């Protein structure tokens, strides 16, 4: 496969010599994602998105740098660039497979790895994290995305299909929790965004939404992902391993609702 656009001058053209690329269709990122491999070369990932108000590549680069400095495993940022039309991010590939695809492990082992990875992230001191995703900020971004017409109403969860973004936003305001249990969250804690190798957790990926938020931001999306991939029977083992044996259904529903806007 050849590149569908001209690479920017500088580190990208130099760094990608000898690589072949294959589009990676896993995940829901608005960016185009490509896996790059070459004989005798370390695997890389290239992300490309149109430049604009709601781009996430710069956010991801900043968060990967912070997460790495915090001592948690994630891809290395090799190069980041924007040419005004597109934003580009080149990162290293982590060893192993994502938790949705790691078929050599049982589903139970995979949900326990997810719970442990979230615990490690949630134990980081929030004072050290510069990325603020409290509801005041995230609801404002959700509103801006709705007003810009980029909320995909055809991709709502089954229970909300057929409703408008405006109707869901009104519900988001009406049911907003009065408090937040703040931790450093991944922001998109679905199984494909956590990597395992040799039966151990090897790192966090797709971190553009990482920030300080209620822990239910992660718990809600993790539960939805587990139910979708493995069935609801594994929700309790996940919650038990995390240490939240009796979650609040209203908070789970709220943060799944919020995610409809992203």
How would you sum up this structure, described in words?
The protein is globular, with a radius of gyration of 19 Å. The model has no long low-confidence stretch (mean pLDDT 93). The chain has helices at 11-15, 57-69, 107-122, 135-147, 165-174, 216-230, 235-242, 249-259, and strands at 20-23, 32-37, 44-50, 77-82, 86-92, 97-98, 182-185, 194-197, 200-204, 211-214. The two termini are 30 Å apart. β2 (32-37) and β3 (44-50) form a beta hairpin. It folds into two domains: 11-92, 2-Layer Sandwich (Phosphorylase Kinase, domain 1); 97-259, Aminoglycoside 3'-phosphotransferase, Chain: A, domain 2, CATH 3.90.1200. The longest helix has 16 residues, at 107-122. α3 runs antiparallel to α6 and α4 packs antiparallel against α5 (165-174). It has a five-stranded antiparallel sheet with strand order 1-2-3-5-4, with helices on one face. With 262 residues, the chain is of the alpha+beta class. It catalyses: kanamycin A + ATP = kanamycin 3'-phosphate + ADP + H(+). It comes from Rhizobium hidalgonense. Belongs to the aminoglycoside phosphotransferase family.
């Amino acid at each position: 496969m050849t590149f569908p656009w001209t690479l920017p001058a500088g580190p990208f053209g130099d760094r990608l010599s000898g690589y072949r690329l294959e589009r990676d269709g896993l995940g829901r990122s608005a960016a185009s994602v490509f896996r790059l491999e070459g004989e005798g070369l370390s695997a890389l990932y290239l992300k490309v998105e149109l430049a604009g108000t709601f781009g996430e590549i710069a956010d991801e680069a900043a968060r990967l740098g912070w997460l790495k400095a915090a001592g948690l495993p994630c891809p290395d940022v090799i190069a980041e660039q924007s040419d005004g039309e597109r934003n580009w991010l080149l990162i290293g590939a982590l060893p192993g497979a994502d938790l949705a695809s790691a078929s050599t492990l049982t589903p139970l082992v995979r949900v326990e790895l997810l719970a442990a990875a979230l615990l490690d992230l949630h134990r980081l001191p929030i004072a050290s994290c510069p990325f603020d995703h409290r509801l005041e900020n995230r609801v404002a971004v959700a509103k801006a995305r709705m007003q810009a017409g980029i909320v995909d109403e055809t991709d709502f969860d089954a229970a909300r299909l057929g409703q408008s973004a405006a109707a869901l936003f009104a519900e988001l305001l009406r049911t907003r929790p009065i408090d937040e249990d703040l931790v450093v969250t991944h922001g998109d804690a679905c199984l494909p965004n956590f990597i395992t190798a040799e039966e151990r957790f090897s790192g966090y990926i797709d971190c553009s939404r990482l920030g300080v938020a209620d822990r239910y931001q992660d718990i809600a999306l993790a539960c939805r992902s587990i139910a979708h991939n493995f069935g609801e029977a594994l929700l309790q083992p996940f919650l038990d391993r995390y240490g939240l044996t009796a979650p609040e259904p209203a908070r789970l529903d709220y943060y799944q609702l919020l995610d409809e806007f992203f």
